[in-house]
Amino acid sequence: MRKTIFAILFVWLAVTLPAQEYSNFAEQTNRLNALTKAHPALANLVSLTKTNGGKDIWLLTIGSGNTGSKPAIAVVGGTEGNHVLGSELAIGFAENLLRGSDTDSIRNLLAKTTYYVFPNMSPDAMEQYFSKLKFERSGNASETDDDRDGKLNEDGFDDLDANGKITMMRVETPVGEYKFHPDDARVLIKTDPAKGEKGKYLLLTEGIDNDKDGQLNEDGTGGIALNRNLTYKHNTFAPGAGDFPVSEKESRALLNFLYDAFNVYAVISFGSNNNLSTPIAYNALAARERILAGYLEPDARVNSMVSELYNKVTGLKDAPKISPTGGDVLSWGYYHYTRYSFSTPGWWVPKAKPDTIKKEKPFSVEDAGANYLRWSQQQGITNTFTEWKQVQHPDYPNQKVEVGGLDPFVLINPPYKLVGDLVKKHTDFLVKLADQQPVLDVVNLKTESLGNGLTRVSLDLINKGGLSTHSKLGERSYFLKKLKVTVKTGDKQEVVGGRKITLLNSLDASGSQSFNWLIKGTGKLSIEAGCPTAGVKNVEVTL
Length: 543
Ligand SMILES: [Ca+2]
Ligand SMILES: [Ca+2]
Ligand SMILES: [Ca+2]
Ligand SMILES: [Ca+2]
Hints:
By secondary structure, the chain is an alpha+beta fold. Helix content is 24%, strand content 24%. The protein has helices spanning 2-16, 25-38, 84-99, 104-112, 123-126, 249-260, 297-314, 329-336, 368-378, 419-435, 472-475; strands spanning 43-50, 56-62, 72-76, 114-118, 168-172, 178-181, 184-190, 201-205, 264-270, 340-344, 385-391, 401-406, 440-451, 454-463, 483-488, 494-497, 501-504, 512-520, 524-531, 535-542.
C-alpha cells in the first residue's frame, strides 16, 4: 500500500514539477511542439534544415495575423554549442511570452511585433552536454581536419580518470608555466616571468596525443561552429571556422531566412559576446575604415540606449568583457545584415564576496576558477570540481601527471535552478525592446482648395518610436527596403505637384519629415507611408 502511494506521488511530482535540468534536443523539440499546439493562432514552427547530425534547425514564429508584414525581432539561441543556457533562454522566452498571451499587454504586443525565435542553432554540439562523455563542444557534426594533417577527427579528448567528463590535466615539470593560486591551491594560474616567478606545472586539457604528432587533443569530434562561420571577419584558417563563410547548413539556413525577412529591425543572440551589459563604444577611426571596423556614431548611441534598458530591466552586473572575434552572429547582424544587433551570455559567475565568518579574504589574484569555487560553495553547489588525482600517462612516462579541475560548462551555464529567473528577466527585456520599435504616424494633415479643381495636401510623417526606422549603416545598404511614401490616386485624380512616390533612407527616432502635393481632381485618395521595419501607415484624404 505504502509503495503504491509513493509510486503515485512520484508520478504526480514528475508530471507536475517543471523540468529540473536543461532540456536535450528531443525535449526541446517537445516543448516547441507543445507551444504551437497550445497557441496555434500565435505560434508557428517550421524546420529550416536538418544538420549533418540529423537534427532540425527550428524556427518558431510568434505573432498574430500576417506576421511577415510586422516589424520583427530575431532571437537566436544556441549561438554557441557549449552555451546550453542560450538555447534555454530562447525557448523559455517563447514559453513565457505565449503563457502571457491572454493578457492585453502581450496581445497588443503580438499584434504589432513579430518574434522570430531560433531556439537552437547548434544542436549537434549541444548534445555533448547530455552525452556519456561531457566536454564543451562548439562544432557541429561536420567532419573537419582542424590541424590540416590529412586526417579527420584523429585526436580528441580522452577521459583518463574515467569520470565521464573532460577536465584539465597537469604535468609536473620545471619548465611549466603554471603555479598554485596563492589563495586556493586547487586552482593553477600562470606565472609572471617578469616578476621572476617560477612555474611548476604544464596545464593541458585531459587527453593523450593519439596520433603522436606532438600536439594534444588538436582534432577531435566537433566540426564547424556557427559563431565562427558567418561572413564578417571570417577567420578562414582557424579551427571551427569552416573553409569558407556560411559553409554549413545551419548558418546558411539562418542567413537565408533572415536576408528574406526585411521586417527584422533587431537581432538578439544569446552567446559569449556581450554588447548589452557594456555597449560597443564609438571609435571614430574604426568607423571610417574602408571595411568598416566600428559602429557608426548614431548606431553606437542606440547600442548605449538599449544597453541601459538591458541593465535596468535585468539588474545583471559585473559582466566580463568579451569582444567578437570574427565570423560571429553579433558582428554579422550589424556589419552585414545592417540591423541593430545585440548579444549577451545572459549569465556569468557572480563575483563572490569573501565570507568574513570563515575569515576569507579578497583574492590576491583575480581568477575565474577561484571565484567560481568560492561562489559555488556559498551557493551550496557540490560535485562540480574533481580533485586532482595522479594517472599513468603514455606521453609522460616518467613524470607526475594529475587529472582534475572544474567541470566543463560550469563557468558559462548556471545551475538549472537559476534559469527560471534569468528567462523571466530576458523575456522582460525582449518585451521592453519592442516598445522602442519604430512606429510611423501622420500628423498635421491639411487640405487647401486652390480653385480650378486643384488641392494642396500637406502632412508631417513622424517616427514615434525610440529607434530609427533603419540603422545608420542600414541607410547605406542597397539591400534594405527604404521608407516609401506613395500617393494613391483614383481614376480622375492626378498629382501635378510633388512626387507620387518618395523614398526616404530612414526616419530617425522622434524624427519628422514634411510633405506636400498639388493634386488635381475630386473625391477620395489615400496616402501610404511605410517600410518593413516600421510597418505601414495609411491616411485617407478627401479632395
Ligand atoms: Ca587532423
Ligand atoms: Ca575525466
Ligand atoms: Ca593530428
Ligand atoms: Ca595529436
